[in-house]
Write a structure and sequence with these properties.
Chains A, B: Catalyzes the conversion of 3-deoxy-D-arabino-heptulosonate 7-phosphate (DAHP) to dehydroquinate (DHQ). Chains A, B: GO terms for molecular function: 3-dehydroquinate synthase activity; metal ion binding; nucleotide binding. Two copies of one chain form a homodimer. By secondary structure, the first copy, chain A, is an alpha/beta fold. Chain A has a seven-stranded mixed beta sheet. The radius of gyration of chain A is 20 Å and the shape is globular. Chains A and B meet through helix 4, helix 5 and strand 8 of A and helix 4, helix 5 and strand 8 of B.
Chain lengths: ~350, ~350
């Protein structure tokens, strides 16, 4: 499978991935190489990763606790302190081996350590392969607010090794699949149709490649999120607020990112039907597709009020306005759409129907 | 006084400064404008600043505690939380009004908030005017380690309004003057001679302009500190370690940054005499100049051991080597010079003589 080239680095797949990495390490003369893992990837992925490394390197392994709840400044500070203790310098590098928490946090830690050291991302979840492998977004949460602190900075390379997908349970695969469905909704109706038809997650390689390609095209046209890149936030305005609310709430179990944006895509589908011309049939198709794959969640009136309050922290907002990305049709988007609170509440009623 | 143009922004002086700021604010359509101050600049500088602002803006004032000891991630987190509470969005801007702590920390906070909002620096100390106004270095300390966490990111503009120097005591003025003397040592022997001759700090405007110009030339040639920009670290390798040690130590009073690098410049002058051809006369000139202006400090054997231990955290290090910037002569530098521990100890003996 060919590598995908972004503005500044390449995403290498499977058989090419470790060839590229071994070549890069052999030619980089890093003073030290740190591998950031969480408890899960330490056990399941690190041995696999190590088995592919040629040459002798004294990797230093840094483990953080798994889970979105640890994607915060306190964890960053711990990693910065460990890097200092282990004599990391500006010529050191960090390899982030894990899901979105590890790659988002690790990218931010590396970007700020001594004002920036090089880093390489090896996403191990479907979600991070299709979502975090392109675009250079790094960051951590601030309390319940997702990715409130971070920078845009590019890795040296990204490796997509789909063998790691074997370490994931069905729920985690579903979570990543939601982002792939989003790629269909925002840019390619036939890709949406293809994705809807798959019945299992055994043969994902080509689809992952398509998703990474779609995201790369969008980011290359608009790296700083002035217009087209905003479309990648479809389902995320409400999805992030729902995810944040469930992270804080004691009455709800945590939602995985893909589960939260699956709900967000139904809700914002309804808004699209009301405001930007999405047809009734397409709306029903979106709702049916997601509800067949993701558990239906109940929202109390209080939940909805709190979710709508959290919307004001969305990073696309400006001047007090909440800006939505909506669909004109499947595969076509409209950006910077304002929505009234009444219609937002109506979207939750439609979801509950 | 003409503005100095860097690669991406301008440094405006005195009569031009507020003209440029008022013009910029009027044309920027920021959703909110935050002014970051510390306790001191809140009292002494904010009223002066406000008196120059034309137009109606609801500035939100954020105050942090004064002092290097508060230039850390905990303070950043507090400011990020306040920004979130006050509904800052990506179209908001931050004006950092203060010394190096406020501009370094404020620049870092702005660079990471929602992955980056615009910021403007208004240095109010002599040190931050001549040192922090050019180069885009932002960051905070990690425990005793100076500027261990940060990014390189440029402000929208920098205003140098020398009227703020009236708010400083003699010791703070001396601290900034040390950086100016460094500019002479690393690039211009006649500027060094001019600076040595001044007897008071009443007429600094032209000298500040010269210092900012020197730093700007260096940074424009080497923005990412591969070679020439390293020369700005003259006196800082040992100076930072001394500053860090005194920050941690209960037996010593705090040293201001300029006081610490003044010692560092004598010590590294001695190393230059031993290793890179600085003449005996020039070394004596450097020692005499700094000791006439900065209090002589006593170092115990234990102090020296701890300072040498801290050297390993210097950001110019790589592959376990400590890299010094030394002088070939006054006005001419040599970079990436390795020094033995024995010679480092000898430099402290020379300082104590």
């Amino acid at each position: 499978m060919n590598s995908i080239t972004t503005a500044t680095y390449s995403v290498h797949f499977n058989e090419n991935a470790y060839l590229a990495l071994n070549d890069h390490l052999a030619n980089s003369n890093y003073s030290k190489i740190f591998v950031l893992v969480d408890e899960n990837t330490h056990n399941c992925c690190l041995p696999v990763f190590m088995s592919h490394i040629e040459g002798e390197y004294d990797f230093e392994i840094i483990e953080i606790e798994a889970g979105e709840i640890h994607k915060n400044i306190a964890t960053c500070t711990q990693v910065w302190e460990v890097l200092s203790e282990l004599d990391a310098d500006r010529k050191s590098a960090m390899i982030n081996l894990g899901g979105g928490v590890v790659t988002d946090l690790g990218g931010f830690v590396a970007s700020c350590f001594k004002r920036g050291i090089e880093f390489i991302n090896i996403p191990t979840t479907l979600l991070s392969m299709v979502d975090a492998s392109v675009g250079g977004k790094t960051g951590v949460d601030l309390g319940p607010l997702k990715n409130q602190v971070g920078v845009i900075n590019q890795p040296q390379m990204v490796l997509v090794a789909t063998e790691f997908l074997k370490t994931l349970d069905q729920r985690q695969l579903q979570s990543g699949y939601a982002e792939m469905l989003k790629h269909g909704l925002i840019s390619d109706a036939s890709y949406w149709d293809t994705l809807k038809e798959i019945t299992g997650f055994e043969k994902l390689d080509k689809l992952i490649y398509t998703s990474v390609s779609i995201k790369n095209e969008v980011v290359q046209i608009d790296p700083t999120e002035q217009h087209l890149r905003k479309t990648l936030n479809y389902g995320h305005t409400l999805g992030h607020a729902i995810e944040s609310h469930f992270l804080e709430s004691e009455e709800h179990d945590l939602l995985l990112h893909g589960e939260a944006i699956a709900i967000g895509m139904i809700l914002e589908g309804f808004l699209s039907y009301k405001l930007t011309g999405l047809s009734k049939n397409e709306l029903e198709d979106i709702k049916k597709t997601f509800l067949a794959r993701y558990p239906k969640t109940s929202f109390t009136k209080k939940d909805i009020d709190m979710i709508l309050t959290l919307l004001k922290f969305d990073k696309k907002n400006s001047h007090g306005n909440i800006n939505f990305v909506l669909l004109k049709s499947i595969g076509k988007t409209a950006i910077d759409i304002k929505v009234t609170p009444e219609l937002l509440k109506e979207s939750f009623s439609y979801y509950a129907e």
